[in-house]
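Regression test attached.
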Amino acid sequence: MAIPYTLIRSKRRKKSLSVRVDPSRGVIVSAPYRMPEFFIKKFLEKNAAWITKKQAKPALPPAKRRILDIELEEFVRSLVKKHAETLLLHPTAVKFKHVKSYWGSCSRKGGLSFNYRLAYASPLAVEYVVIHELTHLVHKNHSRKFWDTLRNNCPFVKEAKKELRHLVMV
Ligand SMILES: [Zn+2]
């Protein structure tokens, strides 16, 4: 099945492919400048089920979206509390944002931010993002030490990363 799409080539240092389904503009694919088109088509075919589902689903009304946001905030806060206590870590703040660039972030001052889009991820993947950001309180980078510590604290790194890779930020 061929999916019609609009292709946007990025000249910046974009490394991966992203797909979003816009209610009025249809399927929009952002790809690295040199990525061959057959690769993009293959990717779309592989994700056809997801795309069709997205296309069929109208955007959530604001009230429902707000409920989803509040539920996510409560869930993430409970996870932060649980893991911060276990790992003896002390984040200075926990914030939530509507962003397209990250699932979670950790500021220099030790404040954690989470993407509201995590409401669409599985609880396991959300928990991974929480532990990932908490681990940044110890290691500010993505060094080997960071990943070793993270894997120690979170047994499902691989599964969660895989899920998040396929979950497109819309
Ligand atoms: Zn990180």
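Expected vs. actual: identical. Residues 5-56 form one domain.
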